[in-house]
Amino acid sequence: MVPLEWYLLLAFALFVIGVTGVLIRRNIIMVLLSIELILNSANITFVAYSYYLQSIRGQVVVFFVLTMAAAEVALGLALVIALYRVRAVLNVDEMNLMRW
Amino acid sequence: MTAQLLFLYFAAMILGGAVVAVASPSLIHSALALLVTFIHVAGIYVLLNAEFIAAVQIIIYAGAILVLYLFVLMLFNPKQERFYLHRQLPVGIFLGAVLLGLMFLAAFKTKIIAQTGTFTVDSVRAAGHTQAIGKVLYTDFIFPFEIASFILLVAMFGAILLAGRRGAPKKKPERSETAGNGKAAHVEALSSRETMKEDASLAVQARRIVNEEQKAL
Description:
heterodimer; A: mainly alpha; Helix Hairpins; B: mainly alpha; extended
């Protein structure tokens, strides 16, 4: 029997790794990739609670989070492509002007 | 006992894949390590008796989102990322370590006071997991369901508008009146990669002009 705290710790460790990735990565595509890790950690938390509280609503929320993650990835990468057309950089440090 | 061993294997692979994804200088290796993470998260869902969510996770995350990332990485063809010591590197790692330590201290001391629902493991297994989700999704969550489909539509529009092809439209080939004169002149639309390179070179020239102006000031 796996205690609930193990799932929560796993989800939180994944969350922390995702946040660290968002902070330390300099390529914008990798920042978006780390955001996917954060979304996965939230999903694990929801499903773990749905199992331990015997409620199915946690998994329905996971369904919607997955949908939102897919939409966000599509739009985020489209924005990256549009941004690359204006300035030929993918480095987050060089995207520091609202013009150009 | 097997459940605990399986959980430890899944957890080790998930965290290992996540660390490689975050710390690897090669971008393709990061994306593939993320694939390992996603598949083992699906394994965790199966361990938690949520097999429909596990299948949806593999289909959407490993099958759509990761493929989208790989396509974009193919289009950009980036060089390896250099990890230079920027301002946020020590801050990020320090914050991560502090948060992780705090959570480990607090995890086993809390009590969960929540209302348990009616979907016990046996009832879900009896009715089928997809049916159990469907029962709630189409009754209590019908409005978020419709909104989710609308959001996907908007995401499709946005992606096509933002990243769509910008080449010159194809001219119709000239129709010759005499049969046998077959040469038709038509302009091919530039591929999106060539338009991106054109735009990028124009942007580099603009940047150079701006830098010269700033130096002249």
